[in-house]
Amino acid sequence: MNDLLSLLPPGSDVDGGVLRISGCRVDDLAREFGTPAIVVAEPALRARAREYRDEAAKRWPRSRVVFASKAFPATAVQRVMVEEGLGLDVAGGGELRSAVKAGIDPALIVLHGNAKSTEEIEYAVSVGAGLVVVDNADDVDRLEAIVPPGHTQDVLVRIVPGIASSTHPHVATGQIGSKFGLTPDAARALIARIERSDRLRMQGVHAHVGSQVLDPAELAAAVAPLAAMGEFPVYDLGGGLGTRYTYAEQPPSVSAYLDALLGAAREHLPASAEIIIEPGRSMVNTAAATLYTVTTVKRDARNFVAVDGGMGDNLEVAMFDQRYEAALAARMDEDAVEDAIVVGRHCESGDVLIDGIRLPAAQVGDLLVVAATGAYTHTMANNYNGARRPPVVFAADGDARAVVRRETWEELFARDL
User: For the segment 364-406, what is each residue's pLDDT rounded down to a tens digit?
Assistant: First the structure.
């Protein structure tokens, strides 16, 4: 089971058969914070942010790395990105408010969304969000009505680059027919309108191919369609680099990704332009793991190992069949002796965390750790079957602290009237 260390946060190790994440024994974490719990190795998170920042700057001095907050919009995670010199990409009023709470310079905020509300745009303008990515003409209508006379709001226009990526259809965004952005002809008409506006300032164009894309050439392919839109001060190349979830996956390194992406930029874009990249999943995923407690073991038609979480804290499997790897976290030195299916506690047959895995003979009370859960788990946590959303725990050099506490029973009913 020590093979799982290759998927767990960098710096994880095993002490007497017990997994340690950033020097913290997981049995101690489970006693202090309960399960399920998302455990983040803070040093790994910071190291990844610096890697992106520094490697991008080497290749394109006028580059800006902007964390795609939707991947893990905990205020503490956003604060780490701010402290490491990154901007924040936000989609929606909640992510925008948590970015402000995290201490971001509003000029480094990029607001996205295909269906922005008037309230969200009003708040973005009021706090001085640096860039609003216009997805449609209605965004322009709202902005022109909201931006005060004598002021201007910098905007980018989102382009559909016409790139069909090899990722799951549910997270592909660059193909013609995507709900995000405008086809080039429609975008040109809207750009012309923005350039005539006395309330908006046209700064550039944006494209995004999709999420969990493992071939950097697919991401780099969006650069030429952006260049074809004309010459602008800013080109936002989006994010989408995939990350490692399983033993079999070998995603490209940050360096290889940036070589491909910024190599295409050197070929197609003006050297004077500022380039924005928006990593999300690849920034946070492997910096975290989720701890569960085994609640039942049913050896029948199949060997079901059920835990105290599931699709209430991880929707990735149900949404697009994401594969994970796991181990018994306090029995890491034991051999795997039986096949199992790890399932959750929710009343859905689709509440499966891992459909087929080799484990030691699991027992009620065992701790189970699922690797690579930093992306799109906290952000999609829900209350199905009255589940309480789990805490987020930062571990660093043997110390641990909750940065998001577990939801209370009282909070489940706080909105009742």
Answer: 999 999 999 999 999 999 999 999 999 999 999 999 999 999 9
Contacts of 182 (CB under 8 A, 6+ apart): 135, 136, 157, 158, 159, 160, 190
| Integer Rg of the chain from CA | 22
- Strand, coil or helix: what is 5? helix
Question: How would you classify residue 365: left for phi > 0, otherwise alpha for psi between -120 and 50, otherwise beta?
Answer: left
Amino acid found at 325: E
The number of beta carbons lying within 10 Å of the beta carbon of residue 150 is: 7
- The torsion angle over the Cα atoms of residues 261, 262, 263 and 269, rounded to 10 degrees, is 110
Told to judge if 24 belongs to the known catalytic residues of this protein, a careful annotator would answer no
- Tokens 């992510």 belong to 95
Please give the distance of CA 352 from its chain centroid, rounded to a whole number: 21
Q: Judge whether residue 172 has pLDDT over 70.
A: no
Question: What region, left, alpha or beta, does residue 165 occupy, with left being phi > 0 and alpha being psi -120 to 50 degrees?
Answer: beta
pLDDT band at 164 (very low <50, low <70, confident <90, very high): confident
Cα–Cα separations (whole angstroms), residue 337 to 334, 354, 358, 361, 362: 9, 17, 7, 6, 10
- C-alpha atoms less than 13 angstroms from C-alpha of 287 in its C-beta half-sphere: 27
- What token pair was written down for 243? 């990350």
For 263, the token pair is 């190599």
Single out the residue of 288, 408, 250, 372 nearest to residue 44, CA to CA. 288
Q: Is 151 helix (H, G, I), strand (E, B) or coil?
A: coil
Domains of the chain, each with CATH number or no CATH: 2-41+285-412 (2.40.37.10), 43-282 (3.20.20.10)
Length of the chain counted residue by residue: 417
Structure tokens belonging to residue 38 = 């998302």
Range list of β-strands (E), 47-185: 63-68, 87-91, 109-112, 131-134, 153-158
Where helices occur in 84-242 by DSSP H, the ranges are 93-101, 118-127, 137-146, 184-196, 216-220, 223-227
State the catalytic residue, choosing from 271, 301, 337, 347.
Answer: 347
The residue with tokens 């790139």 is: 163
> Could you tell me which residues come within 8 angstroms of residue 25 by beta carbon, excluding any fewer than 6 positions away?
15, 18, 19
Single pTM value for the model: 0.95
Q: For 97-114, what is each residue's pLDDT tens digit?
A: 999 999 999 999 999 999
Q: Please, are residues 180 and 123 in contact by the beta-carbon 8 Å criterion?
A: no
